[in-house]
Amino acid sequence: MAIPGAEAAEPGKRRLTPLRRLDDARFWALAGAVAFWAILLAALVAVKSDVAGKVVALLVAVSGTVAVWFAARYKQTTAPTLRRAARPAATLATLLAADLVFSGGWIGWSVYRANRSFDVKAQILISGRTHLYPSGSATRPEDPQGHEVATVDVAITHPRDALVLVFNVVDSFPKVSSCTPNTRLRLTPTQGGNPSDQVTATPLKPAAIPLSPDAKQLHLDIQIVNLGGDHNCAVDIAVAGAELTND
Amino acid sequence: MSVRNVAEKAAKHWPVLTASTVAAALAIALVIVVTGPDPAPTNTTLMSDSITVGVVDDGPEFDFGDLNPSGFDIDVMKYVGTQLGRPVTPTILTSAQRGSYLQSHTAKLVIATYSITPDRNSQGIDFAGPYLVTPQALLVRGSDAASLSAPNGLKDQKVCTIRTTTASAVTIPQANMDSRADTTKGCVDQLDEGSATAVLTDELVLDGYADVSNGKYKVILSGVYGETQYYGIGLLGGQRTLCHQLDSVIISYLHDKWRRDFQDTLKGPANAPLATIGDFEGKYKPKDSDITAYSCKL
After folding, report:
1. What is the pTM of this model?
2. Are β-strands A118-119 and A235-245 bridged in parallel, bridged antiparallel, or unpaired?
3. Any idea what DSSP says for residue B121?
4. How large is the angle between the packed helices B258-265 and B72-84, nearest 10 degrees?
5. Interval B245-277: pLDDT, tens
6. Which three-class secondary structure state does DSSP give residue B76?
7. Cα(B291)–Cα(B298) distance, rounded to whole angstroms?
8. Parallel, antiparallel or unpaired: strands A183-191 and B229-236
9. Chain A to chain B Cβ contacts (< 8 Å)
10. Cβ separation of A230 and B227 shorter than 8 Å?
11. What are the extents of the domains in chain B?
12. Minimum distance, in Å, between the CA of residue A110 and any CA atom of chain B
């Protein structure tokens, strides 16, 4: 099929490829369409799509930039009459490169936004945190402040893999003995009404509670374990840190 | 130059040489004193010829006797002295005086069934150790043991505790906790007189009284009330180097001598059946990790 604008092949002259025969207007119409599509695609996925979509947009922008750059170079070097194509080609390549940077930056931001940790300490609701006894205590039933179970409730404001909690523990009766070094916290999480695996926390060390992808609320029952087997070693607990995280 | 000439020349210059040497030595000494590191207070404590150690004298099998004290705490004291390479001098105090003896520098160390507590830490008392672990329990007359061990057996009963000890901060539900004494023996005397029905303190201390009483007293409800006690060597806070030195001595003691001393002095608990634990070490011997967790906080 004859391409409009193409030069006729003559004996003794180099045979022109279809691209070399492409006139300026059509070449730039084609290149402009590639650029427009790449930029539009990037803009759309930046707003709408997930991370995979953004990666596709990035690849399109990369391939579009490379294709236009090579096409312009090809025409510039093989068809001197079209040398003026160099400046618009550079402009187009710059636009597409900007698109590339934008798409890459957006992907990076999206990955960061999807994985960054959120401090939710202020949203923690804790009850029964003072005079928390291990089970089987003989003195707890008569302690007006005594508890055997403390509870923590927190809204899962962002979908993350885990809630990392740090507990601070101090002795309820500092005149009697030092319970803190031998105290561990047994955490029983409930999400959506379903209890999940228990987690043991050491005071002042982070304990990660795995979250289900659709978790909106987490409830924790907290019981005290005394490694020395002391049933009366009562402690007061507090949440020193709480983060939703993917780490 | 003849030998005589040399001698005469040396004699002539001797006063000058001596003065120069002395001046240089003084200058060097001054530089060392001024620029050298401050001696740690712990070293000054240990560099004295003898270490004064506060002990009580009313704990059978722990610290007993004024002239020739003996018991588990005394064994620990002697071991510490040997390991630090210093003689130790025991000074008798009461349980209530343990903190004040350290704070007034009357004693450098206290080894006297002295429990590690956050409250004592907050008063400036630091601890090395622990070297012994014990639950708390009640000493009662042998004839009362069965009835007082029953549920609600302690309801309205007078329970004596020793002032300033950890047990004095314990509450037994429904019991009358108003009786107080300055020493363990004071509470045991109240038990004898009938003004108290039971003495609440550390089980190992009470075991000593029960062991020497030929069945007159019995220890009941071990670990039911109160909290587990961790005995440490008390010292004034801010002496980290000394504290860590003592920790090393205690770790060495736990590995080398603890078991033998326990069997030799605390015979009752050493021979008591401990079916669930298997051996008295499981109940009364601290782990090395306890030392990291409990000691040298100040």
Report:
1. 0.69
2. antiparallel
3. H
4. 150
5. 999 999 999 999 999 999 999 888 888 776 555
6. helix
7. 14
8. unpaired
9. 71
10. yes
11. 3-35, 46-133+229-294, 136-220
12. 44
User: What is the three-class DSSP state of A225?
Assistant: strand
Q: Which residue of A has its CA nearest to B286?
A: A228
Phi then psi for A150, rounded to 5 degrees?
A: -105, 160
Most trustworthy range by pLDDT among A92-101, A108-117, B236-245: B236-245
DSSP, res A202: -
Q: List phi, psi (to 5°) of B198.
A: -155, 155
Reported ipTM: the value is 0.72
Residue A57 class from Cβ within 10 Å (0-12 exposed, 13-18 middle, 19+ buried)? Answer: buried
The beta-carbon neighbor of B173 closest among A139, A180, A233 is A139
**Degrees, nearest 5: CA angle A27-A28-A29:** 90
E strand or H helix at B223: none
Residue whose entry in the numeric block shows the structure tokens 């903190």:
B99
DSSP A70: H
- Superfamily assignment of B136-220 in CATH? Periplasmic binding protein-like II (3.40.190.10)
For chain B, what percent of residues have pLDDT higher than 70? Answer: 81
Which residue, chain included where needed, has tokens 């590690």? B116
Residue of chain A minimizing CA distance to B135: A230
Q: Measuring CA to CA, which residue among B170, B238, B290 is closest to residue A180?
A: B290
Two domains, one topology: B46-133+229-294 and B136-220? yes
Are the beta carbons of B230 and A177 separated by less than 8 Å? yes
Strand positions, DSSP E, B60-171: 63-64, 88-92, 109-110, 125-134, 136-141, 159-162
In 10 A of CB A8, how many CB atoms?
8
Distance CA A136, CA A148 (A): 9
Cβ burial B111-139 (10 Å sphere, 16+ → b, else e): bbbbbbbbbbbeeebbbbbbbbbbbbbbb
Q: Which amino acid is at B210?
A: A
Alpha carbon distance B105, B95 (integer Å): 16
Helix (H) or strand (E) holding A99: helix A86-115
Q: Closest Cα partner for B151 from B122, B126, B169, B174?
A: B174
Start-end of H helices in chain B: 3-35, 41-47, 72-84, 98-103, 118-122, 145-149, 184-193, 203-211, 240-256, 258-265, 267-271, 280-284, 288-294
Radius of gyration of chain B (CA): 26
- The rounded distance, in Å, linking the Cα atoms of A219 and A194 is 10
Of A138, A178, A180, nearest to B224 by CB-CB distance is: A138
A187 neighbors A236 (Cβ within 8 angstroms): no
Q: How many residues does chain B have?
A: 298
B153 phi, psi to nearest 5 deg = -65, -25
pLDDT band at A5; cut points 50, 70, 90? very low
In whole angstroms, what is the distance from residue B93 CA to residue B112 CA? 9
A234: tokens are 């009562």
The CATH H-level (homologous superfamily) assignment of domain B46-133+229-294 is: Periplasmic binding protein-like II (3.40.190.10)
